[in-house]
Amino acid sequence: xxxxxxxxxxxxxxxxxxxxxxxxxxxxxxxxxxxxxxxxxxxxxxxxxxxxxxxxxxxxxxxxxxxxxxxxxxxxxxxxxxxxxxxxxxxxxxxxxxxxxxxxxxxxxx
Length: 110
Description:
About 25% of the residues lie in helices and about 50% in strands. The chain has helices at about 10-20, 50-65, and strands at about 5, 25-35, 40-50, 70-85, 85-100. It is elongated, with a radius of gyration of 16 Å. The two termini are about 30 Å apart.
């Protein structure tokens, strides 16, 4: 099922919630829309960090979202991050998602 254009912010909120539940730390979540015939194409770019397993859990959970979201690009880099006095090796993650949004149908008053 495709989400409606008016549900765009709900979809972004779902992605953010899923990231929190799967321990993926998203730094940015940037949506862009463009017309695509009778639909609107929504492209979502994300930057964050996490473990390989948190990324897998995140992608599995996103796959279960009712909107037809596709992963268009995944970039990973192994980096050293400072967490207070500790240093951790985590993945720097860049993801690009894409989906089509339906336009809300207008009701005719008769």
